[in-house]
TrEMBL record, chain A:
Belongs to the binding-protein-dependent transport system permease family. It is a multi-pass membrane protein. GO terms for cellular component: plasma membrane. This is ABC transporter permease.
UniProtKB/TrEMBL annotation, chain B:
GO terms for cellular component: plasma membrane. InterPro entries: MetI-like (IPR000515), MetI-like_sf (IPR035906). Residues 330-538 form the ABC transmembrane type-1 domain. It comes from Antarcticimicrobium luteum. The keyword Transport applies. Keywords: Cell membrane, Membrane, Transmembrane, Transmembrane helix, Transport. It is a multi-pass membrane protein. This is ABC transporter permease.
Length: 392, 550
């Protein structure tokens, strides 16, 4: 239906006021920052209305307008706010250049059904702006952490130097601190020692069990499944409390082994879920064919079944790894000072001695999780392709 | 038999013995109908001569066993590392052996005492307490017991500690002096060792025999020899009490008969006065009532505490107003979890809708924005919110820069309920969006168009056609978010301050700071019960098999 809606130029009475309103909104921000909101609104509206009229009547070329507006606003931003104003100005200019012509040429209706009333069109775009705002809400905290981790001061907020984009306001000192501070390095070592072993445990046990669970006739399938999934459902604080009580009874509390066992238990549901999901699409006649050709069950498993379900196993393993790597509640109770992991160190850092090194660690962790997310997504696609569930 | 698929010996990988079983049954029935008395009249046989039915049954059983054998290692692992701890926690929430283990004699002696009479118990109870407290003090157990009973009645802890210091200096050495004066042999540990090996003596001196056993057990645990350690006053006291009570009849030892004849003229010590001198609270019937109320091995006391009630000598009562916090915490936890769930619905619904209705390529791109926070460490996100929300934080700075908020009246957005709700909504939002998205993907867009073409307004079409179809997604997401938020610990701990904390923070406090593990276990059990109930509902609505990740 996209191309069916005819587009035509809108009248001056429509696009000029809309652009002026947007200008007023932008002016409000600039104005309040400079001291007078009202003046900002009026000036913004007037300026944008005049510009909109000018570019549509005089220049009439969108490309030229965009560059022109961007240049104009860059100059204006530089005069008002220095370097950050320059960048903001470039963004504003580019946006308004595009926005004016988008409205003027009626392109905003191109992808909408012809029959929509203006009110519905307005709602359509308002809705998108709302969704955009929610997505911004989702992503902003993570984006804010990254630049702050390069802060040259020991503050948790942007310093004036940072806002001026002054290189002196930025430094790698928090990263340096992370890589040289013994506490952080010990925590990193502990995390790296605990997570892979826990992952290995949950993946090896979990994969076997998932294969057993996906057989056709499994007695007590539901209760078994409920027990195996329960570490994911039970609130962490309760798992932590129970493990603390029980492990101190049997002498595992405060030991490396105890933490590994606890983390392995927490990672198991993720392995079970991902591997069983992969096994749903597994063609059983392949194992039968292998057996038919004389392969014993072990050979069949490693040469036929395993390569096919490997993507699921690996992504289950990654889930288990990230669970252990991120976990703080259980290790807080089951571990002792000798098992202090990275999240534990961050937790104490956030509660007690606040240091922006946490933000540097956070940025590194975000980097790691982006890598893992990419790997899981690629594995999922590969697995779907292998099983012929999606084309390509 | 040619149309039977599996007539040969069953391999381990036989596909579906059950199907074959049905097939065989159908085949046999058909044979019987068509060819009565024919060659296939008997049971259908497998190639090795066993009846096919049995052969197939065996294969089916083997398949089941194989599946179970594959599951067993993990099942045992989870049972040991996870289910056992949970069971241990449930057990601890009612376990109360400390009173009867530390004060065994007192608990028995107190059984006949009426806590409603308003008077402290009689002398024998104090004598029993003297014996118990002596051994408890020797093993340093009395302070633990005092701490335990202090949860129920304040002041008991210091009472036990104070009396524990005094119990060794009671005037009971009067008995020691008088008995050893009768026969110096009494002062020899060897005399006692020999005497206590005789069953007749033990039967004549029951309290002494029990005290002696505890004495030898204590010495053994210390690595000492009972035959070499000096006899303590407490044993002479029990000896005196036994001799008065039984007269030493049946004792094999002449020394006992001699002492029994003499005890009538002994100078006595009133133990209740000794205790009262140590601390006059021992004459308070409330203290004794508390000991009696918590004497059983299992108690509902911790559960009563966690709903702001308490078990008193006079039955179950509400706690004093100023000590009632748990109901408030439970209510707050539930209220805040509901708020978080509602805000997740409010924010998640539009995003899920737009993800489900955009072209796949764009939707996948936007999906990254949802999945990235989902994959990011919880602590990273919590620290991000701490950075954003604090008074010198990013949001306040921006507001001040824009002139919306004055510099000296920065908003307080952290260390309160608002901070917790915002941060946890952000953290749990992906858990709402993902189930909603997967449900909305299955809703046909043609339904909406059909409704509109039938004259429905946008709103009616959404509310009457689209929304009801998306309700399962809302239900799944809401229960998931609610279950997750009700047990959250880290985020409320960091951004919650005092007014934004959950019941889980209180559990952690009782485990690591106040060391009231029983109460922590009881609070945890209640929380677990709520979560299990919700989990059951979730299973009914969505099914645990349908949990998807990413």
């Amino acid at each position: 239906m996209a191309a069916l809606t005819p587009i035509y130029r809108t009248p001056v009475t429509f696009y000029v006021p809309v652009v002026a309103a947007a200008g007023a909104l932008a002016g409000l921000f600039v104005g309040t920052a400079q001291g007078s909101g009202l003046l900002g609104i009026v000036a913004g509206a007037a300026l944008m209305a005049a510009l909109a009229l000018a570019v549509t009547r005089v220049i009439e070329s969108e490309k030229a307008t965009r560059w022109g507006m961007a240049a104009l606003f860059v100059a204006g931003g530089w005069l008002i706010g220095g370097a950050p104003g320059l960048i903001l100005g470039a963004g504003f200019g580019w946006f308004f250049g595009w926005f004016t012509f988008w409205l003027y040429e009626g392109r905003y209706r191109a992808k909408l059904p012809t029959y929509l009333t203006p009110g519905q069109v307005l709602w359509h775009f308002t809705f998108r702006v709302i969704c955009g705002a929610i997505l911004v809400f989702l992503i902003t905290p993570i984006l804010v952490v990254m630049p702050l981790s390069f802060n040259a001061e020991n503050f948790f907020t942007f310093t004036p130097e940072m806002l001026r984009l002054d290189p002196a306001g930025y430094s790698l000192k928090h990263y340096r601190d992370f890589f040289t501070n013994d506490d952080w390095q010990q925590a990193l070592r502990n995390s790296v020692m605990i997570a892979p072993v826990a992952t290995l445990l949950s993946v090896s046990f979990g994969t076997l069990a998932a294969i057993g669970l996906s057989a056709e006739h499994v007695p007590f399938r539901r209760p078994i499944m409920a027990i195996l999934i329960s570490p994911m459902i039970v609130p962490l604080i309760i798992s932590a409390a129970g493990m603390y009580f029980f492990y101190s009874r049997i002498g595992l509390q405060g030991t490396y082994f105890g933490v590994v066992l606890a983390h392995a238990a927490l990672g198991i549901p993720f392995v079970i879920i991902t591997v069983t999901a992969t096994l749903v699409g597994f063609d059983r006649s392949l194992t039968r064919a292998a057996a038919n050709m004389g392969a014993d069950p072990v050979t069949t498993f490693f040469r036929v079944q395993m390569p096919l379900i490997l993507p699921g196993v690996i992504s289950g393993g990654l889930f288990a790894f990230i669970t252990s790597f991120d976990e703080v509640v259980v290790v807080l109770f089951v571990g002792s000072a000798g098992q202090k992991t990275l999240p534990w160190q961050m937790f104490t850092g956030l509660r007690e001695q606040i240091s922006p090194t946490i933000l540097a660690v956070a940025t590194i962790l975000v980097g790691i999780s982006i890598c893992l997310l990419t790997v899981v997504e690629m594995l999922r696609r590969r697995s779907e392709r292998l099983r012929g569930m999606s084309p390509g | 038999m040619s149309d039977l698929k599996s007539t040969g010996p069953q391999t381990a990988d036989a596909p579906t013995p059950e199907d074959a079983l049905h097939e065989a049954a159908a085949y046999a029935a058909r044979e019987q109908v068509h060819a009565p008395g024919g060659p296939a009249d008997g049971p259908v046989l497998a190639a090795d001569g066993t009846p096919l039915k049995r052969s197939l049954n065996r294969a089916l059983r083997r398949q089941k066993m194989r599946a179970l054998a594959l599951i067993a290692p993990l099942l045992i692992f989870v049972l040991l590392t996870f289910i056992a701890p949970i069971a241990d926690m449930l057990f601890r929430s009612v376990e109360n052996q400390i009173v009867s283990e530390t004060l065994p004699e007192t608990v028995v002696a107190l059984a006949d005492w009426d806590s409603e009479a308003g008077a402290p118990p009689a002398e024998p109870v104090f004598a029993a307490l003297y014996v118990d407290l002596f051994f408890a003090e020797a093993q340093k157990l009395h302070t633990r017991l005092g701490t335990r009973l202090n949860y129920e009645k304040t002041g008991v802890s210091s009472l036990f500690r104070k009396t524990g210091r005094r119990v060794g200096r009671f005037d009971t050495d009067t008995y020691t002096d008088q008995i050893t004066a009768l026969d110096p042999g009494w002062a020899e540990p060897a005399t006692w060792v020999a005497m206590m090996q005789n069953n007749g003596n033990r039967a004549a001196l029951p309290l002494t025999a029990r005290a002696w056993d505890r004495w030898t057990a204590y010495l053994a645990s210390e690595g000492d020899d009972p035959a070499k350690e000096d006899i303590e006053d407490v044993l002479f006291t029990t000896l005196y009490l036994d001799l008065v009570a039984t007269g030493g009849s049946g004792a094999a030892d002449a020394r006992i008969a001699q002492a029994a004849a003499a005890v009538g003229g002994f100078e006595t010590v009133t133990l209740s006065e000794q205790f009262a001198a140590a601390d006059k609270d021992w004459l308070d019937p409330e203290v004794w009532g508390t000991i009696k109320a918590f004497a059983p091995n299992y108690t509902a006391g911790y559960f009563l505490n966690s709903v702001d009630m308490q078990k008193t000598p006079h039955g179950i009562e509400a706690r004093p107003e100023n000590q009632q916090i748990y109901m408030m915490l439970f209510k707050r936890t539930i209220f805040m979890s509901i708020m978080i769930t509602l805000s997740c619905i409010l924010l998640g619904y539009p995003v899920a809708w737009i993800l489900a209705n955009l072209p796949t390529r764009t939707a996948n791109l936007l999906m990254i924005l949802v999945l990235l926070p989902f994959w990011t460490s919880l602590l990273v996100r919590t620290s991000a919110w701490k950075v954003m929300l604090q008074q010198q934080g990013v949001i306040n700075d921006t507001l001040v820069w824009l002139g919306i908020v004055a510099d000296d009246s920065r908003l307080v957005m952290i260390n309160n309920q608002f901070g917790t709700i915002v941060a946890m909504t952000h953290i749990l939002l992906p858990f709402m969006i993902l189930p909603l998205y997967s449900v909305m993907q299955t809703i046909q867009p043609t339904y909406l168009r059909a409704a509109k073409s039938l004259g429905a307004t946008n709103w009616t079409a959404f509310w009457r056609v689209y929304f009801p179809q998306s309700v399962p997604g809302i239900g799944a997401g809401s229960i998931l978010v609610f279950i997750l938020s009700i047990g959250y610990y880290i985020t409320p701990e960091i951004v919650g301050g005092t007014t934004g904390t959950f019941i889980s923070n209180r559990i952690a406090y009782h485990i690591s700071s106040s060391l009231n593990w029983g109460l922590a276990a009881a609070l945890g059990s209640i929380l677990l019960a709520v979560v299990m109930l919700l989990y059951w509902v979730y299973d009914k609505i969505v099914g645990i098999d349908n949990v998807k990740l990413g």
